[in-house]
Structures are given as structure tokens and as C-alpha cells.
Amino acid sequence: MSERFVERMRDESVRYDTKLMADFAAIYCGAKHKDRARSPITSDASALGVYGNRVPRMCEECAAHIRYAEKRRAFCPKDPKPFCAHCDTHCYKREESEWQREMMRYAGPRSVFHGYAIPGIKHALEAMKWKREMARREAEGPTATKDNAAR
To answer: In 107-117, which positions are buried (b, 16+ CB within 10 angstroms) versus exposed (e)?
Structure first.
């Protein structure tokens, strides 16, 4: 485990995002991989206590995806970090990105029933804000973006 990873995992927003992502993966795994053995995730983040006493349980396949995602989140170059779906820097491998998208589309709406109603509402509002911003930029055209960058 790198010192940089340990340092980044001290940041509350990184810890929160990492825990949220693993909890969503556990929702997904519990429904999609019922036939597989699931155990508490073992990862660098879990070794650092990011998940506290409620370590998410998932199959080995989902755990491997989360271990990858932990590192991507810890080393995200953006500050503040946007939602990955809204980011102009795509740091996930294609197959990992596809898995994340599938997992989030399944677990996101169901997370309300697992104690994530308020984060879900915040996420929906942030997504609406992002969509409005993208529509505004598109309406202004490419020259408006260059003019704004020059200011």
C-alpha cells in the first residue's frame, strides 16, 4: 500500500465516496450474484478502516472491481471531484467503467431502501445542475467556451 494512497484515504470526501461505492456494489452483488459466495471485502481501504464495523460483503468479482475503484478514487486528479460520468478525464479502463455504470444504474435507485435517500437526492440535484451547465455551454457554442477560458 503506497503512502500516497494512505494519505488520500485520510480525506473525508475520499473515504465517503469509497464507502458509498462499496455499499452500492454490495447492493448490486447481493441481487445479481446470489449464487456466489460473498464475504467482507478485503482491500487496502478496508485495512485502513474506511468501512468501519460494517464492511460490505460481496463476491470476489465485485470485490476486485471495488479494489480497482478504491485506487482510482484515491488518485483522482480532480479537486473537487466531479461524478465520473460527468468528468472530462476518463481514468477507468473501459471494462471497469462499464461495470461501474451497470452497478450504479442498478444499485443507485435501490440505495434509497438501504439508507441512502439523502445522498441520492443530492446526487440527482447535482446531475440536473451538470446537465443544465452542459446545455448552456452547448447553446453558447465553442467560441463562448474559449472566451470564458480567456477571462
So the answer is: bbeebeeeebe
List the chain domain ranges.
Answer: 3-115, 116-151
What per-residue string of b and e applies to 55-91 under the rule 16 or more CB within 10 Å gives b? bbbbbeebbebbbbbbbbbbebeeeeeeebeeeeeee
CA distance 86 to 130: 7
Phi, psi of 49 (to 5 degrees): 85, 15
How high is the mean pLDDT in each 10-residue block of the chain (151 residues)? Answer: 92 92 94 95 95 94 95 85 74 90 91 85 82 84 54 45
Query: For 52, left (φ over 0), alpha (ψ -120 to 50), or beta?
Result: left
